[in-house]
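Anyone able to model this chain together with zinc ion?
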Amino acid sequence: MTIKAKAYAAQTATSPLAPFDIERRTPGPEDVQIRILYCGVCHSDLHTVRNEWRNTLYPSVPGHEIVGRVVAVGDRVRGFKVGDLAGVGCMVDSCGHCPACAEGEEQYCDNGFTGTYNGPLFGGENTHGGYSQNIVVKESFVLRIRHDEKDLAAVAPLLCAGITTYSPLRHWRVGPGMKVGVVGLGGLGHMAIKIAHALGAHVTLFTTSAGKVADGLRLGADAVCISTDRERMAAHANGLDFILNTVAAPHNLDAYLGLLKRNGTMTLVGAPESPHPSPQVFSLILKRRQLAGSLIGGIRETQEMLDFCAEHGIVSDVETIPMDYINTAYERMLKSDVKYRFVIDMATLV
Ligand code: NAP
Ligand code: ZN
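re: yes, here you go
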């Protein structure tokens, strides 16, 4: 017996998302079944359904910023009961025994983690994500939500945009006295500003959108620089300790590496369809700068991030949309026209 769920799926890389019926496994002893209330819309969803990373399995039901209510639990589940709020992020399984898993960094699992969607590894089938009415996930990959229930839609994006920015900010020890740059003001970028600000850093936003200056300051940036203005960029040269680059498209990384101090690091979290045209080695070697990458965050750290955000009153700035708006939402996301995360109200999927 399986559980039926209505969902939205792409059938090919060029077809729009449309209604599609899926089945979930009945909860096993360690499983939690969640009725999905809200699901955030990540740029990775768009990269995936359009096969921009050339690894998409179809039909593709995206969505990995999931919040909902527990409706059933298996016999061995101890941490959740029916009626609890729960979250699911980008992963639903990993091997559990490699060094990365042992250290709570399942996202770097040596045997490959199972993505919440497009994750074919352990079960043999293509996992389906949060653009659906329910999901069944093993307890160890389910997150506890401590925010006020009225903020639930705005909590959903923390499950990817929140942890993807929190994890590198913590790893590179961002805190008071540090000058941090955030590149790109979208879903990830706006969370990066809020979290870096809460960690006590001095934050400068670099945006291509002149219309986002006031929002950048409101969200917690101390300064905003329009990155297409060479003179303004030059004023920041050699001034930053750390840069978190969230841009979803290929661009010239040298323009940002030049803003780092000696020993500074720029970490890429944006994952464009095709490579960046740079860097030149001199951007790195002249000041012993480092270029790094970071992938989401482990389950333990995701819980830590949720608790940190609850404690600091941090949620996402969202535009709540009905399920059937999703294709329009994708087009707007491509135009950087989202303030700053679309979140699907799953009650509209009937
Ligand atoms: P988003 O909301 O679309 O934001 C991306 C921002 O990049 C835009 O708002 C825009 O900011 C800037 N940008 C500049 N030029 C652009 C262009 N030509 N096309 C698109 N954006 C441009 O996307 P997101 O959901 O924050 O995701 C950002 C990237 O991170 C995506 O590639 C996504 O797949 C990736 N991601 C990675 C991880 C990870 O684990 N590493 C996790 C989640 C997502 P301005 O208007 O301010 O310039
Ligand atoms: Zn994501």
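The pocket of zinc ion (ligand 2) is lined by residues 42, 44, 64, 90, 160 (CB under 6 Å).
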